[in-house]
Design a protein that fits this description.
single chain; alpha+beta; 3 strands; 4 helices; disordered C terminus; three-stranded antiparallel β-sheet; globular
Length: 116
């Protein structure tokens, strides 16, 4: 992979630990309405929602998302620990709005492509 492709895929992603289960994902809030999430390799073992999905015989990439993680990201945006790339100030009485998991990626070493 070229350096440009790596930068495009990884730019702005920050580690975020789910406040419910502690699973670490990489996340970028592009705007209040757009969230990019890249699941890490350990997620299928740490996230109880993803672990149950995998234990039931389903591929991790087919999980639409985790509500606890969605809530955790929204809380981080609201308290200002996860910035919004478009510069939206969510700590001055603004609302972080809904978080949508637009780029669920199976746990893997390679970065996800967000067609968002």
């Amino acid at each position: 992979m070229t350096a440009e492709a790596t930068e495009f895929l990884n730019a702005g992603l920050r580690p975020h630990d789910c406040r419910s289960c502690g699973t670490r994902v990489l996340v970028k809030k592009n705007s209040l309405a757009h969230t990019s999430i890249q699941w890490t390799g350990q997620a299928s073992h740490r996230c109880p929602v993803l672990a149950a999905h995998v234990a039931a015989g389903h591929h991790p990439a087919l999980l639409d998302g985790c509500g606890d993680l969605t809530d955790s990201i929204a809380a981080a945006v609201h308290d200002g620990t996860l910035p919004v790339a478009d510069g939206t100030d969510t700590t001055a009485g603004g609302s972080p709005g809904p978080v949508r998991d637009n780029s669920v990626t199976p746990p893997a070493a390679s970065p996800a492509v967000d067609d968002g």
